[in-house]
């Protein structure tokens, strides 16, 4: 059993904790929380709770949430820490993990340069094999990596161009916006282009991003220049071979992200999550060797199965296909609607 500690129990950390809990080859040793809020109270039913440094222990005790120790105690009890603290904090925590000689898996808010490999299960699983410090790329990059890799395998990809319409913030956050504006990223290409290259390698990529007042999902408008001729039926067939890509259709009532997330609720998953990247079948179109498609990304959950697979790669316990299949089975990924 791989003993997994979770540092940072927000949008990503809590989902990774429950996904790890479903695995037969892993156990959650505990989670780190800074405050004894409603999330900590719910977590205490299933996990041991640790605090960053012991300072908040009194507040937890007053709130009736038992504390098992500090982050350093959790490190001593674990084989790996999944660091899902806010963007940039992982870089600070890395020093502590190094000091304790413990493996650590970071998230997309951290820089590629601080780790030994960036991870996406379909694109570059083996690059994290046996590594100590790895980062699962962001929700947007994970989505692009999955679908680009599925097309690339059969048709080759010369150039990637994508417009990312990004959700402003997550549904549990009432502090950020915009609430009535569209906010373009003024950097070209946006940071997603270099990030995608960290997992798909040397392909020409350009991306632009616009923040939109929604919390449900991101939407990507993607154009790929293919190396080999294709048609839309063949592209749909190629994408359909990958369980973490879900082909959806407006004809089945899924015209927008609202219905896609409603469909996820109908599937009865934990927290109504949609781990798969949803690609609208009708949007898959070719003009010559230029392929266009549109995909929707559940930012809160698409990186969760990747975290589970990355842990196995870092411990060299399962090869790519076996790990993906095990993770998918336990998280109910790929059950077609
Ligand atoms: P979040 O703000 O929802 O969660 C972070 C958690 O860490 C919060 O509960 C916060 O209280 C806690 N925290 C703060 N200081 C801490 C400390 N010193 N020690 C321990 N915990 C501390 O953030 P998130 O959205 O889960 O993002 C985490 C990482 O995942 C970031 O790198 C982010 O870029 C990446 N990511 C986020 C999303 C997304 O859509 N939310 C998607 C993919 C990747």
Short description:
This protein is of the alpha/beta class and 337 residues long. It is built from twelve helices and 16 strands.
Helical residues, percent: 25-40%
Count of strand segments: 16
Structural class: alpha/beta
CATH C-level label of the largest domain: Alpha Beta
- Fill in the CATH topology of the largest domain: Rossmann fold
Rounded mean pLDDT is 97
| First-last Cα distance | 33 Å
- Pick out the low-confidence regions: none
The secondary-structure element order is EHEHEHEHEHEEHEHEEHEEHEHEEEHH
CATH architecture field of the largest domain: 3-Layer(aba) Sandwich
As a whole number of angstroms, the C-alpha radius of gyration is 20 Å
- Strand line-up of the largest beta sheet: 4-3-2-1-5-6-8-7
Oligomer state equals: single chain
When the domains are counted, the total is 2
Report on the structure:
The chain is an alpha/beta fold and 337 residues long. It folds into two domains: 164 residues, NAD(P)-binding Rossmann-like Domain (Rossmann fold); 159 residues, Dihydrodipicolinate Reductase, domain 2 (2-Layer Sandwich), CATH 3.30.360.10. 34% of the residues lie in helices and 25% in strands. It contains twelve helices and 16 strands. The strands form two sheets. It has an eight-stranded parallel β-sheet with strand order 4-3-2-1-5-6-8-7, sandwiched between helices. Strand 1, helix 1 and strand 2 form a beta-alpha-beta unit. Helix 1 crosses helix 11. The longest helix has 17 residues. The chain starts with a strand and ends in a 6-residue tail after the last helix. Nicotinamide-adenine-dinucleotide binds next to helix 1.
């Amino acid at each position: 059993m791989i003993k997994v500690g979770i540092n940072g129990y927000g949008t990503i950390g809590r989902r990774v904790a429950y996904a790890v809990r479903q695995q037969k080859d892993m156990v959650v040793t505990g989670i780190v929380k800074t405050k004894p809020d409603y999330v900590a109270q719910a977590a205490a039913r299933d996990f041991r709770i640790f605090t960053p440094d012991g300072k908040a222990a009194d507040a937890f005790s007053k709130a009736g949430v038992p504390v098992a120790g500090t982050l350093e105690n959790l490190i001593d009890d674990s084989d790996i820490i999944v660091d899902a603290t806010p963007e940039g904090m992982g870089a600070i925590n890395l020093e502590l993990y190094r000091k304790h000689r413990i493996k650590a898996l970071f998230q997309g808010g951290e820089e590629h340069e601080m780790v030994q490999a960036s991870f996406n299960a379909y694109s570059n699983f083996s690059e994290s094999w046996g590594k100590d410090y790895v980062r699962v790329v962001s929700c947007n990059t994970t989505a692009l990596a999955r679908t680009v890799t599925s097309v690339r395998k059969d048709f080759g990809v010369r150039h990637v161009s994508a417009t990312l319409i990004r959700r402003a913030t997550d549904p549990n956050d009432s502090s950020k916006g915009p609430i009535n504006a569209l906010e373009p990223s003024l950097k070209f290409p946006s940071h997603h282009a270099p990030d995608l290259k960290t997992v798909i390698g040397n392909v020409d990529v350009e991306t632009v991003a616009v923040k939109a007042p929604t919390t449900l999902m991101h939407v990507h408008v993607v154009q790929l220049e293919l190396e080999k001729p294709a048609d839309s039926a063949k592209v749909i067939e190629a994408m359909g071979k990958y369980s973490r890509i879900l082909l959806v259709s407006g004809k089945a009532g899924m015209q927008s992200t609202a219905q896609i997330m409603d469909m996820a609720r109908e599937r009865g998953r934990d927290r109504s999550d949609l781990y798969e990247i949803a690609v609208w079948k009708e949007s898959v179109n070719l003009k010559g060797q230029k392929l266009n498609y549109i995909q929707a990304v559940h930012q809160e959950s698409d990186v969760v199965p990747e975290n589970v697979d990355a842990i196995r790669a870092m411990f060299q316990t399962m090869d790519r296909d076996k790990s993906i299949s095990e993770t998918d089975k336990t998280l109910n990924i790929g059950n077609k609607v």
